[in-house]
Amino acid sequence: MTEPLRTPEPARVRTPAEEARTLVAAHASGLLATLTSDGDPWGSLVAYGTLPDGAPVLHVSTLAEHGRNLRRDARASLVVAEAAGGEDPLDTGRVTLAGRAEVPAGAEAAAARAAFLAAAESARHYVDFGDFTLYVLRVERVRWVGGYGRMDSVTPDDYRAAEPDPVAGSAASAVQHMNADHADALLAMAAGPAGFTDATAAVCRRADRYGLDLWVTTPRGSAPARVGFAEPCARPDGLRAATVELTRRSRAMLA
Amino acid sequence: MTEPLRTPEPARVRTPAEEARTLVAAHASGLLATLTSDGDPWGSLVAYGTLPDGAPVLHVSTLAEHGRNLRRDARASLVVAEAAGGEDPLDTGRVTLAGRAEVPAGAEAAAARAAFLAAAESARHYVDFGDFTLYVLRVERVRWVGGYGRMDSVTPDDYRAAEPDPVAGSAASAVQHMNADHADALLAMAAGPAGFTDATAAVCRRADRYGLDLWVTTPRGSAPARVGFAEPCARPDGLRAATVELTRRSRAMLA
Question: pTM for this structure?
Answer without folding.
Answer: 0.89
